Amino acid sequence: MVEVAIGMAIFVLLLISGSTAMTQTQKLAHSNVMHNTARTVMEGYMEQMKGIPFNKFVDIMADPMNIPIGTMGISSLKTAKEIHYNDPLYVGTENKKVILLDIEEEPDGTLKSTTMDLFITPTITDILLSEGIEVFEITLNFKYKSVFNGSPKAYSNSIRFIKTSVSEY
Questions:
Q1: Is the CB of residue 134 less than 8 Å from the CB of residue 153?
Q2: Which residue, of 6, 14, 49, 100, has the greatest Cβ tally within 10 A?
Q3: Backbone dihedral angles phi then psi of residue 71, each to the nearest 5 degrees
Q4: Contacts of 53 (CB under 8 A, 6+ apart)
């Protein structure tokens, strides 16, 4: 009887440690999906901004509350002809974007989407160089919350690049 009790105790300990490891793995995978998605979306905005002419950033700096950075968004929920839409970013303002993570089909045939709220705050800093070259440092600060099993954790990060008045090749 003692051997059976000891065997069951060992089995329960193994079961608990295995379920804890599985939960931690799922939490890490969920966190990685959200982080990679946020990073990819931010890089998409950054690449679009790299293509905007320098003089447009001069205009934006003159009136950042009324002149947005003209970026585009992509929606997988729209038809092929309407997939792109205007998705501007305002400098110095927290811009909320709802990002689609996944679409699942429910047993009744309806589609359930999983989204994340991504908050983007662009800043533009005028860097003065002695060579007379105009340079802006553009920073995209972003934050989001990862919620796994009712436990939220906030993340924040930023990416930046340099935009100059000199023609880029």
A1: no
A2: 49
A3: -105, 165
A4: none
Buried b (16+ CB within 10 A) or exposed e, 95-114: bebebeeeeeeeeeeeeeee
pLDDT in tens, 106-138: 888 888 888 888 999 999 988 876 667 788 899
Residue with tokens 């440690």: 17
Is the pLDDT at 9 greater than 90? The verdict is: no
HEC assignment per residue over 10-32:
HHHHHHHHHHHHHHHHHHHHHHH
CA distances 73 to 2, 57, 158, 159, Å, are: 66, 19, 19, 18
Query: For 13-57, what is each residue's pLDDT tens digit?
Result: 888 888 778 877 877 887 888 889 899 989 989 999 888 888 898
Whether the pLDDT of residue 72 is over 90: the answer is no
**Measured distance CA(146)–CA(42) in Å, rounded:** 17
